[in-house]
Structures are given as structure tokens and as C-alpha cells.
Amino acid sequence: MLEISGLGHSYGAHRVLDGIDLKVGEGELVTIVGPSGCGKSTLLRCIAGLVPPTEGKVVLKGTPIDGVPDDLAVVFQDYSRSLLPWLTVRDNVALPLRRRGLGKADRRARAVEALSSVGLEDAAGKYPWQLSGGMQQRVSIARALAYKPTLMLMDEPFGSVDAQTREDLEDLVLQVHRAEGMTMLLVTHDIDESVYLGDRVVVLARNPGRVRDELPVTLPADRDQIGTRADAEFVRLRAEVGRLVRGVVKESEAADAAGTADAPVEEGGAAEADASVEEPAKK
Ligand SMILES: Nc1ncnc2c1ncn2[C@@H]1O[C@H](COP(=O)(O)OP(=O)(O)OP(=O)(O)O)[C@@H](O)[C@H]1O
After folding, report:
1. Best mutation site among 10, 18, 41 for ligand 1, i.e. most ligand atoms within 8 A of its Cβ?
2. pTM (2 decimals)?
3. N or C: which end of the chain has fewer CB within 10 A?
């Protein structure tokens, strides 16, 4: 479905991504996690055709991406800038459907259906600024759903909402993913979230950004905020992802490098590790 090969990107002389190879299968929900500044958003923008990669290629359903593909929807962190304040919620959701060549009645019907799937059918006639932040992000998700994209990209979609709303939205994404079987790629800086949502977690390293490791998430598809997070497999995975994100070389790698079976070694020193994980939500 999505195949990224040898992808590299530089902003001028600043090398941000290097040699990224990644495949996403039909119906998969893949999460991408990594320290701040490792190039997660840049990678997503390259996939969305918003930023042309300096090297390598992105192929979606057999077609190389060289501009924004028709069949893609993106949910950004900053919902307040992605919804148009002068349009009602329903019209915000319906607007991109013009690209699908649908008539007005069909666009409205699809918008109402998508709003109802995110629990916002009663807000259809309101304006975005009359809704809470969490509700506005639901509208953004509904807009992506209504579009019925081949691939849904999400860039830190819950980075600007409170903790309770974040959990509700995470569950909404899981529910939609299961119900629609939609292929999704979600970028987050949150280690727990990457495991909770993912069928597979891709961990990026930085300077330059590259794939450090990929971990299959062997948790049952049915997840819930309390039970899943207490599951021993969840605890093991979050610790593993946490070690990778913090730049701690896995014991096996450390042993390989040192020729011994010593304790894990930190890459770049503790200062770098701390800075990368403690940094707040972003941008
Ligand atoms: N348009 C741009 N022009 C120049 N440099 C950029 C641009 N966008 C991002 N960068 C730089 O590229 C690097 C990677 O940024 P990016 O936003 O992709 O990382 P990230 O992993 O998403 O970071 P964070 O988690 O903090 O949002 C950073 O050093 C950033 O300053």
C-alpha cells in the first residue's frame, strides 16, 4: 500500500532524514515515534507530497508521489488553523469532497454521516469556534473520514488537547480504524500512545532522522485505556520503545559494540536523552 525507500531530506545544508525505508500494509495502523527534532513531521510531509524529498521515493498503491495525492487525508495537531471559521462544521467536513466530484447533496450526506461517527451529529450547524478544542479535533477527524482516503496521515493529532480528551480521541481513532479498516500512519512524541494505538511502532533516531527499529505490537486489537495499559505486554513494549527513543542501545547492540555483555550504553549521553523525551508537546 505505502512503500518508502531510501528517503532522505535536507533543509539547505541541514540533513534531517536519511535512508528511510518503510512499508505500510493495507489496513495497518502504524505509529511513528521519536525524539523531538528527529524529522517525524518532515517524514509525514514527504509522504503527503507537501515536501519533496531530496532523495528516495514514496510510492502509494503503486504510484510514486510527486505532489499531494488525491487519495490522502491529513489530520494536523493544530485544528484551530485547519478548520475554516466562517464555514459551519458540516461545510468544513464537506468542503474537500468537491475534489471527489460529489454533488452537493452527496457531500452533505457524507459529512453528516462522518460527523455522526465521531459523535458530533448535533454540532453540524455550528461554527468551529463554538466548539471545544477536543470537538474541533473530532471535526478534523470527521473531515478526513468523510473523504474516505486510501491512507490517513496524522501528525501529533492529540498534542493540543487535555489528557482526558486525548484518551477519548485515541479510542475514537482505534474505533474508526477497526470499523473502516482504514490504513493509518500516526506520528506522536508520546511513547505510551505509540504502543496503545499501533499495530506496529516505528522508532526514529535523530541527527539525521533514520529508522532505529520497528516493533510489532502483539496486544489484542480490542484495547481499552485502563486494561490495556496495565497489560504486561503493554508495559514491556512501552519500556522497550522508551529505551529506544531515549537512545539507550539495546543490551545486545551494546554487547556487540563493546565485545562484552555489559549493561546498556547511552548514545549521545544522558543530557541528550533527557532533552529528547522531556520536551513538551511541540511547535
Ligand atoms: N521548513 C523547514 N525549514 C528548515 N528547517 C526545518 C523546517 N521544518 C523543520 N525543520 C528542521 O528539521 C528538523 C526536524 O523537524 P521536524 O519538525 O520534522 O521534527 P519532529 O521530529 O517532528 O520534531 P518535533 O517532535 O519537535 O515536532 C528540526 O531541526 C527542524 O528545525
Report:
1. 41
2. 0.83
3. C
